[in-house]
Structure to design on (371 residues):
């Protein structure tokens, strides 16, 4: 058992020394070797052979139909030690990365896009574009589509927005952040581009920023109301009628995967302004609460035994919740391999761990499973 572990550690060291060796998430180029039994085999040169199979294969089946044996493709590494030792690849994710580049280009060019509305909620509309799903906030709708509802009743607003599903609208991209999977559209900006928004005085970015800065100041605490819920955060209505955004990372010190399970449209609470930029106001909820890491040194020390719940497992190891906002990592190197880690640690289960290292300034803790 010890020899296997030492051999793997030496291999890890060699891979770390080779800075050009690709990692999970990197894009690689390869040549198609064969396509059989619902699996596409790709020659990756010195890296070995990669495969695209399973659900991924069926998702991109129409795309690979036009790729001949010997054809070149770019794919994203999903797993360096995949099925039967092959490198598992994703063509879909590599293509998605190209789409984000195109989204940034469309944003910079202020390109007007004619797109169909796919879904509606109380805060706005969802639009699909080249495989990505973006959000069109109600506040960014033009006058013909904006839901003018007396009293702002959220249910009636949702009902009005639902009527727009299936319609095509001209929009421009105003936010494109692939790392946050954040794509935001605006119909207002599209109407400004085409000169159709005549009833509004067109402001320059400098004027808009000055206007926002005159209303809001960094550090100010405001009473806000949730107007939209998306994967990357909460859109909120501000006291002066403007719209702000609370990014998911600013909601809580704890990790949150599904905002809709904790918030609903119409919820009201206090939030702190952390950035005012152009027409955007960014806020935070968690800055109104003490960071648990500030006092962690009083509760935890190296060598202590703590109880923790397994909340995530990745190629690097398991993420353990010790308390709300305090997390530790059990590194995969503590096990023979990732499979053994998954056998020993089950998602949602609570175990005893020993604190191997703790750095409260860097907000990091490593743990070792106690057997």
């Amino acid at each position: 058992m010890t020899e296997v572990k030492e051999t793997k550690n030496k291999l890890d060291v060699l891979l770390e020394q080779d800075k050009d060796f690709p990692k999970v998430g990197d894009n690689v180029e390869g040549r198609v070797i064969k396509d059989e039994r619902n699996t596409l085999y790709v020659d990756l040169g010195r890296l070995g052979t990669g495969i695209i199979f399973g659900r991924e294969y069926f998702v991109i089946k129409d795309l690979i139909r036009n790729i001949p044996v010997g054809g070149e493709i770019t794919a994203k590494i999903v797993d360096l030690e995949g099925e039967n030792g092959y490198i598992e690849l994703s063509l879909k994710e590599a293509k998605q990365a190209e789409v984000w580049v195109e989204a940034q280009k469309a944003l910079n060019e202020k390109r007007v896009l004619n797109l169909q509305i796919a879904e509606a909620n109380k805060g706005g509309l969802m639009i699909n574009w080249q495989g990505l799903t973006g959000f069109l906030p109600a506040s960014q709708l033009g006058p013909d589509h904006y839901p003018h509802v007396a009293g702002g009743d959220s249910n009636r607003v949702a009902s009005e927005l639902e009527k727009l599903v299936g319609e095509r609208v001209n929009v421009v991209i105003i936010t494109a952040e692939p790392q946050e999977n954040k794509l935001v559209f605006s119909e207002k900006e599209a109407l400004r581009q085409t000169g159709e928004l005549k009833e509004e005085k067109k402001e320059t970015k400098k004027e808009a920023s000055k206007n926002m800065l005159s209303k809001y100041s960094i550090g100010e605490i405001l009473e806000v109301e949730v107007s939209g819920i998306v994967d990357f955060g909460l859109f909120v209505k501000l006291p002066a009628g403007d719209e702000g955004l609370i990014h998911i990372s600013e909601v809580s010190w704890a990790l949150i995967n599904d905002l809709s399970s904790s918030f609903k449209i119409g919820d009201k609470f206090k939030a702190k302004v952390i950035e005012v930029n152009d027409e955007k106001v960014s806020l935070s909820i968690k800055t109104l609460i003490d960071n648990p890491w500030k006092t962690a040194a009083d509760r935890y020390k190296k060598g202590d035994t703590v109880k923790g719940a397994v909340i995530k497992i990745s190629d690097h190891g398991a993420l353990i919740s010790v308390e709300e906002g305090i997390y530790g990592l059990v590194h995969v190197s503590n096990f023979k391999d990732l499979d053994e880690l998954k056998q020993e640690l089950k998602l949602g289960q609570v175990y005893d761990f020993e604190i191997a290292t703790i750095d409260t300034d860097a907000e990091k803790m490593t743990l070792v499973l106690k057997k």
The two ends are 16 Å apart (CA to CA). DSSP finds nine helices and 20 strands in the chain.
